[in-house]
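Quick one, T. Sequence first:
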Amino acid sequence: MSGPVIEVVSPADNRVIGQVSEARADDVDVAVHAARAALESGAWANSTAEDRAAVLDAIAAGIKARSGEFADLSSAEVGSPRAWASFGQVSTAVGVYAASAKALRTYEFESTRPSVIGGEVLVRRVPVGVVGAIVPWNAPLFTAALKLAPALAAGCTVVLKPSPDAPLALALFSEVLEQAGLPAGVVNIVSGGVETGRALVSNPGVDKISFTGSTAAGARIGEACSRDVRRVTLELGGKSAAIVLDDVEVDKKLIDGLVTGVMANNGQICVAQTRILVPRGRYDEVVEPLAEAVSAMRVGDPADRATEVGPVINAAARDRIEAAVSGAVAEGARVVAGGTRPEGLDAGSYVAPTVLADVDNQMAVARDELFGPVAVVVPYDDEDDAVRIANDSEYGLAGAVWSADTSRATRVAGRLRVGSVSVNSPAPVDFGSPFGGFKKSGFGREGGPEGIDAYVEAQSIIL
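Structure tokens:
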């Protein structure tokens, strides 16, 4: 790459832990041309579904074989607790490639149907073409998998742009791709920041953009793609709610689940269930053990496997989160856990895991995506009120419902205007099922056969 060196800084202690070269517009153009040449050669696009599925399986196996290296790198560059990184950063990616391979083996690329004017129609699903995939820093290997796996399954070629804050795991991933047997040019990786991303989005050789990141950036990308009539998938922000119904048993499973839903990856996941909705009649019954559990979490070096909460990505993020907590207190929220900077961790970008009680859903802290280890507990009156509050958000990515009655929880889940909902679990993502958002959480879906659908064009041949 012809651009300057990007130094990757550990959020744990501000040390430089690696570097990559920034891709300029000319470098992006070279990568797009390589992807276009690989597409038009037909070596990948015209291969059989079984052959492509075998490569996806090989990618999954390659990541798994080096899972320790990937977890170490992700922990170092993102600040993910090492104990969590093994699953949240690595096993999730393995699962996506394996699930896409499985879906690919039964995916219908051709089908016939009767024509309404007589005869038959052959409906073909052909690759959308060259895909520009832009992924964030919080879970780079996983979010890249959500784009690469279905794009490759469909027969597309890809130019992948990691975040400049966390490019190292994906640099290592390039070795896995090479060993998996992908033809040259099928996947190309260009590192860089906003200008690199802008060059990729505007490049006329790109047929589709798939972006994961902030709603603000997604809106700009969507606007640019609209002007060029370019296909686009946007997986954007979230402010997900976990509804605790009034029949729930307040036990360790519930409290652990609520904590995990907020604090996983230091609160830096798009599906974090940061709004916890609790019935007024049982409010203290939930808030007190939740505060105790969060206060007891071990904050520290993400490389230490005993650490439960590591640093946020940088000092700017830390300062923004702290300001949001202070603003909430000024509006009347009550700090019941955390709320202060952890002692003895001045070298890194640490935020104490925090719980705010007595939060009104109209407060900024309940409406803005903080992307940090902060939970807000909002009281509600009855089931209808809980659904109203959960849906009273510009976002609609994910959610959870906790109840002693699974049927009731499922019914409530169906009333939420979000892309995916977990029942009695903090994990609203299934690798073999569609994932994506309503409202300003974006549009399009990743995962399952629906994920492959996003990377094909339907062609009708009338016989």
